[in-house]
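Follow-up to my earlier ticket, as requested here are the two runs.
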Amino acid sequence: MKNTATRRPVDRLIFALDAPDYAQALAWIETLSGHVGLFKVGKELFTACGPKIVEEIKRRDQKVFLDLKFHDIPNTVARAAEAAVRLGADMFNVHASGGAAMIRQTADAAAAEAARIGVRPPLMLAVTVLTSLNDADLLRIGFQKNATEMVIHLAALARESGAQGVVASPREIALLKKMLGDDFVVVTPGIRMSDAPADDQKRTLTPYEAVQAGADYIVVGRPIRSVKDPERACREIVQNIADALAASDRS
């Protein structure tokens, strides 16, 4: 399985397009097109705007990470994946906890639909443990494994079942790469600049630290949205990514 992550630093930056409505989302798209590699469309925005926000991003020749975290019976998730392919998603995700059959059927359905309509299949990721959860949270939910153990367990299940990568906390990147190989893609949220608050993320790293640890893509939201000059923030993050890649090449 070949890792399709690009070496171009800007392409590795995913902006979390967490806007409450179409107008605000469009303003961010206009501001940041060309400054980020993908726009992540999550539940809030997709529920508010529907497919038209994805269509607008694609109309501008930008890439989309459809972050809807599908989790249902295998047939339902497979059909959702087919719809994501037709919509033009470049990346989408499912919950690894949906199980092997769900992941496998979804991966097969996405690949078949992409072949049918003659497009490149999107990168399918599995969500392991949300970055807002720590060991105590998992224990309270009822899991017996700690966060790191759950991430590795679910990531291995996802790989065996046909997922091309995972969404995982920065803290688990190096271990995932060691255990599952460099070809398995790791997309990492929970990114914060060194002088920024963690907010509700409990397991964070800086862009430089995450990429040096092996992250193929990083997802950044509030550190870009909350500053006076978002474009400058993007440039700083991209430079962080470039510096980390250069350091990795030297090591």
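Run two:
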Amino acid sequence: AAIYFDYDMDEIRADQAAALDAKVPILNANADVRIRISGHTDERGSDEYNLALGQRRAASVRRYLSARGISDARMEAESFGEQRPAMQGMDESAWSRNRRAEFSVTAGGNPLKVP
């Protein structure tokens, strides 16, 4: 599941922390899993600004998980800025879905163990 952010922000919102907290036991139960955290933005702002904001969002998620005991070596962060929208549209309902961090498994976890 994606983690969503407020406009022009990279802090983990209180309503998104539970979704991240739910990932911790899964990652702990699957020590061989490596993940990629991809940061995304809505279309507002320059390409350069949005790439940097997406990177800050991915790094924020990585720091959050690291503070809960997940090794930095198991995570990589990248940014797509506004290049890969989750939803098309030029209104808040679309923009709010595009301001996100997504996860992909890059190694291990085949199959994932349920904690």
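The only thing I checked on run two: The beta strands are 3-4, 34-40, 75-81, 100-107. Let me know what else you need.
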